[in-house]
Amino acid sequence: PVIRREDYLPPAWLVPEVALDFRLGLDATHVTAKLSVNRNAAGNGASTLRLNGDQIAPLAVRVDGKDVNDWRLDGSDLLVELSGDTHVVEVETALNPATNSQLMGLYASGGMLCTQCEAEGFRRITFFPDRPDVLSTYTVRMSGPKAQFPILLANGNCTASGDGEDGAHWAEWHDPWPKPSYLFALVAGDLVANAAHFTTMGGRKVDLNIWVRPGDEDRTQHAMDSLINSMKWDEEAFGREYDLDLFNIVAVSDYNMGAMENKGLNIFNTRYVLADPETATDGDYDAVEGVIGHEYFHNWSGNRVTCRDWFQLSLKEGFTVLRDQLFSADMGSEAVKRIEDVRVLRIAQFPEDSGPLAHPIRPDSYQEISNFYTATVYNKGAEVIRMMRTMAGVERFRQGTDLYFDRHDGEAATCEDFVKAIEDGAGLDLAQFRLWYSQAGTPQVAAQLVHNGTQAVLTLTQSVPATPGQPEKQAMPIPLRVALFDRETGTHSGEQLIVFDKASDTFTFDGFAHPPVLSINRGFSAPVAIEFERDSADLVFLAAHDDDPFARYEAMQGLVVQHLVAAVSGKLDDAARDEGRAAIGAAYGAVIADPALDDLMRGELMILPAETYLAEQLAVSDPGAIHAEREALKAWLGRELAGPLKVLHDRAVAVPYSREAAARGARKIKTQALVLIASGDPAEGARRAFAQYNAADNMTDRQGALMVLASLDAPERETALADFHDRYEGNALVIDKWFSLQAGALNPKVLEHIAALAKHPDFTMTNPNRVRALYMAAAVNPRAFHDESGEGYRMIGDLIRRLDPINAQTAARFVPSLGRWRRIEPVRAAMMRAELERIAAMPELSRDVREQVSKSLG
Ligand code: ARG
Ligand code: ZN
């Protein structure tokens, strides 16, 4: 069953008020839902009320207080005939949270009860018009055994609570803000809070709580600091103020995704809440800050203004990702954050755009909406809004977002509403720009620069590749920040923003006596691929001189990408290979030595392009060849720069732990230096890694050292892995690291190691974090996944088939890696395809996996 955007119809019935009554039990929860329903004047006038359900049965149905028997089931939906325009419809259901392994709806996690309703989980709790354009005011009553569930939470404010008989207690919650069912949340369990306050710009005093399992409270301060920073930042950057007296966050260890923005009661994967220096890396700290910000920002971009239907998902997700990116940039280094965000886009989203699952940021159809929580909807969605901001400028963009929030507060809006508000508020003409919402595929922009007299003429040509269902594309408006550098002075006379909106166009720049060096798509102003043939001298020049930090990074990447792509395409003879390596080695040497660079930025410049990004540059690629060439370059760099790398490592080792930028930078380059040293000289690498491991007083250094050791065939490997497991036994998030470090290792025996880890007593298929720790790490490890035996593909295929009945959403996330087969050399491609066919042949398959597999087979 395909759902299409163009088929949207307003709901026939509205539900202004809901009262829910939960009698809670881990393996038996009873739910009574009382819905006040009104016929929607804008609807089709149907007398049938359709209430969605999924895996539930109605125990009793009452209309206006009287039992009725003339209800029907249509598939899993409950249909009730209503005569008038206003009724109260009551439905009772019973659930078993303990057996809910899909982790959608109401489920049990480590002895507590919690919910996940986005996108369509509420229908697993009770029958309801489970669509985001039905907004209701919720009153929730819950009761249960006090010893088992001492804390009872729901959206909004607690209005009453008390003790019942036989050790039971109860609480009543009321959320004054009308919301769609996907924002409903309930939590019951034995939890402790880190509590704080925030006073909003309007003077509202808000109680803040971060709820965790007893024993975890010492690891919540960074999350609390991040929350307070988010609240302050949204007031300053977007004029958004919090709107309840209470804001609760609950951390749960069994969770399908990152976190969820339920009104006043965010529910988080523990990995985005818990952090302390001993157990969390600097990257983990950044992820906590980013996700805390993201969910908080949803209070306006998502909750106060929600989505009309799920095709509009990017309305809230793309915008909220942009908001969290800008927040993190303001909290730390803007330059480094931009580089990280582009790297994620290129690794995760570019392959989507160029594969069988390509879809526009506003999809036209879906079978299972959970499959559309993608890098395209989230990250490309953020890039599309960022382009509007770049074209408008920060202040006018803010006028646009102010207008958007004003105009649509309390509504379920569309992407079109957003674009219109930016158009009106910021004074932009976005008529052609709307193509970014409807066309999939990463635009390819070919650039040519010709120097003539005193003029430099830039010729640009764009093409948007065909994607499934979209064979023909129109030219998109592409905002490009450009600068032309004078080779002699190393400077430019001002950056310009050009908006390139035709299939082909030329741009003329005056006043250049000598051919200038072009810096294009600075700051990654547009999510496109630039094709610009240039000699490595120009790239070396930009890597050293560009005053845009992203462009500097881009020049370093370009230098390596050009070289490795030529190498794997068999275009390099020995002399050309030496020449290419020499240029890269010189640029790396300069980066290592440059005293003007801070270490966080130095670390970015030292990161080699990912193998998936290299593969993107080729129509069809041989992952084995890409891996071998990239590893060979690492080893060469390690030998060539052995001296400076050891100096760098020693200098970084001497910096004491702190959370300050300089110390974080030192930790970042410490492990990067170690990786290259170990590539060039495994014995020296093992020695230094083991020393770094043993001296570590923080997880960043410890994990970095263990990562290096895990890839080596050295006796220190086993010693350190065993120590790590002993040291952190019982700490689930750290044991996840232990799994993923081994599954992600570039070790010749990695497939054997993964097979053994799958049988380890700590492994379980019912915890998504653990499944991802082992198998996502394996799926993105070229050594494991693309092993020429095909065993890596078999392993992921088996996983999908075994996981699907347990947790379909998580299983479906593994399909895209196999779906890349068309872009892989024929021998491997056949094996990848065969795995997809084995999955497709399963008699029972979830809608989630079915959709991804059938699209991947094409
Ligand atoms: N809205 C959440 C976020 O991005 C994601 C929830 C996705 N859940 C799901 N089951 N697909 O913050
Ligand atoms: Zn989100």
Average of pLDDT: 98
Tell me the helix content.
Answer: 40-55%
Query: Main beta sheet: strand number and arrangement?
Result: 8 strands, mixed
The separation of the N and C termini measures 17 Å
Coarse shape = globular
| Overall number of strands | 31
Q: Could you tell me the strand content as a percent range? A: 15-25%
Poorly predicted ranges (pLDDT <50, ≥5 residues)? Answer: none
Number of H/I helices: 28
Ligands bound to this protein structure:
arginine, zinc ion
Placed side by side, the strands forming the largest sheet appear as 6-5-9-3-2-12-15-14
Specify Rg, calculated over alpha carbons: 28 Å
**Structural class by secondary-structure content:** alpha+beta
Write the layout of secondary structure elements.
Layout: E1 3-4, E2 13-23, E3 29-39, E4 48-51, E5 60-63, E6 66-67, E7 72-74, E8 77-81, E9 86-95, E10 105-109, E11 112-116, E12 136-145, E13 151-154, E14 157-163, E15 168-179, E16 186-189, E17 192-199, E18 205-212, H1 221-238, E19 246-252, E20 259-260, E21 265-269, H2 282-297, E22 306-307, H3 313-331, H4 334-353, E23 365-366, H5 375-392, H6 394-408, E24 412-413, H7 415-426, H8 435-438, E25 444-452, E26 455-463, E27 478-485, E28 496-500, E29 504-510, E30 517-520, E31 529-531, H9 536-545, H10 549-568, H11 574-593, H12 599-606, H13 611-616, H14 623-640, H15 642-653, H16 661-680, H17 682-695, H18 699-711, H19 715-728, H20 732-743, H21 750-758, H22 768-779, H23 782-785, H24 791-803, H25 808-812, H26 815-818, H27 826-840, H28 847-857
Parallel strand pairs: 2-12, 18-19, 19-21, 22-24, 25-31
Antiparallel strand pairs: 1-23, 2-3, 3-9, 4-8, 5-6, 5-9, 7-8, 10-11, 11-16, 12-15, 13-16, 14-15, 17-18, 20-21, 25-26, 26-29, 27-28, 27-30
Bound molecules: arginine and zinc ion.
Zinc ion is lined by residues 294, 298, 317, 320.
